[in-house]
């Protein structure tokens, strides 16, 4: 684990550190050192390049290539597995070889994968390109996320404010990229899918060039992992696995934007057209409110309480739909519970995500922050995989419409009990 002195310092900070002055986004950005700025801009660019292509992949596979529906689903599932499922592998490589080489390798693979996908026509070729694209993210995402978390801890230790504010800015950058990417991809699709893929590859060429030029070969304070142990330390770390389970419950709830919510919108509006407006609402809330919410939480809540508040807000979002569903409202009135769910889910996300990422450095063993960061995504991703299958089964059982939403509310609320207890987290939010 982190050394005892660091954990003691974090516990003292959670009890005695006075509130830092509230910072504007620009002031926060100016106070950051060049490395976290580079990593935050990297997240922005990653998501622009990724979302310029991937939202349009299913339609391309089904129409332009003519894949059957089940095969399209299989290919998309392979992409998710090669990314989320292998984050733990990327984390191990980061701890062993450092941030710079792993990020550069990920960028090279993403460039090759997007270029390959643009020209792929046979099924085997598409699958190969998708696996390369997914594994590229499994390399650079744990590298970038773990180093941002470590830099945020150093920023907090220097007295600038809570580490979650830096991680919130990282989330905002990712959300902006997720918003801009589909707009760029939609414009490029006016030419063809290959153009969108090549544009996505070009974004990663720029990222690669930026990191070759700006990323230091050795990052001060970054400790290489011990030769032995590796992933074998994870099954013994009950506190970290508890955090993974709680975070997986959040991700399962978030996944309902794509599973349960579309059915509810279809019922209320007669089509899924309002979904785009609800997704836009979520993005706008994150971009404009994330730093304010994180600042408020950082002044008042430790990491456990921040995650608790976020999970309970998300649970209340499910409860809103569960309570309103028996009324059978349609039209604008019928969409109000769905909008309430999206708002509560998004505000809960703003509390849960920065706190979970900020917690990892306190739980990680010395030199293994990459492994723990990757494992957080991989373990919680497995929970989402199993939970989504169970949710789909629940939705197909023909039960009263409010029951699945009520079950999801209870599951999310119970996740609070999984969080490591107060005094073990080692840091203020």
TrEMBL record:
Coiled coil: none
Region (Disordered): 1-22
Ranges of residues in domain Major facilitator superfamily (MFS) profile: 31-424
Keyword Cell cycle: no
Membrane disposition: Multi-pass membrane protein
Cleavable signal peptide: none
Keyword presence, Membrane: yes
Location(s), subcellular: Cell membrane
PANTHER family: MULTIDRUG RESISTANCE PROTEIN MDTH (PTHR23517:SF2), RESISTANCE PROTEIN MDTM, PUTATIVE-RELATED-RELATED (PTHR23517)
Protein name per its UniProtKB record: Transport system permease
